[in-house]
Fold this sequence. Notes:
This protein is mostly beta strands. The protein is 0% helix and 51% strand. The strands form two sheets. Strands 2, 4, 5, 6, 9, 10 and 11 form a seven-stranded mixed β-sheet that branches. The mean pLDDT is 96.
Amino acid sequence: QVQLVESGGGSVQAGGSLRLTCAASGFIDSSACMGWFRQAPGNEREGVARIRGLSGTTYYADSVKGRFTVYRDNGKKTVYLQMNSLSPEDTAMYYCAADRAYCGLQRSGYHYWGQGTQVTVSS
C-alpha cells in the first residue's frame, strides 16, 4: 500500500510563487519515480514535471520549463514542486504520482496517485 498526500496549494496573484509538497508513505522507496500532474476544469490531466529516484534527474513540460522546479528529499520520502512566475493558466488541481518502473509524463504510466491540491492564480 502506498499513500501520497499533497499540500501547499492555495490562491496567489499572477507572478507569485507556491511550493507544493507530496509526502509518500507505505511500500515505496527512494528509487521510485515521482511525477507532478495538473488538471484544469474541462481539460485532460497533463504531466508537469517528474524526477527520477536515485539519480534525481528531472524533466519538465514545455509550459512550465524555467518556472517550475521539482526536487526530492529521499530521507523524508517527500517531493516538492516549486512554482514561480505563476500565471492564471497555471490554475488547476495538482496531483502527485509515483511509480516503481515508469518515469515519464504520461498519466497512464503511474500506479499511485494523491488526492490533489488546488492552485488558483488570479490576474
